[in-house]
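seq as requested:
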Amino acid sequence: MATKQFPKTWPPLVIREFTDIKKAYIIVRDLVRSLDDLRKKILEVGNDHAALIDFSISATDGITSGTTQTQAGATALTSRFNRVATHGNVDDGVKLPTALAGKEVIILNDTAVADLQVWPATDDAIEGAAADAVG
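struct tokens:
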């Protein structure tokens, strides 16, 4: 039986409104859980190639932003999809993972405080700003 290879960005997900971001996050979170369950089942069966499976999707829920309002104290993000659930003060923040070509990170600030600072990883830059400057 022939298999079809899909690009890593398949299926494309277009977010049109802020309300769509929450829906997209829930869909992705559930997808990540399903893919993780599938990987575990493949490993249980004893497939020699199961260790090579990389779904390249990750999600973290319930993130608390760092309260120091600095890059060093910002909460480090480790997933592709991130939902900040606790954000106490204006300018509290999160820090992106190390930049890689083509890598995308999505952050949902799901709090009442509007201004969440997004810092680059150490020595990285956001949108052509100076290295280590908030984005």
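The first helix runs from residue 18 to 45.
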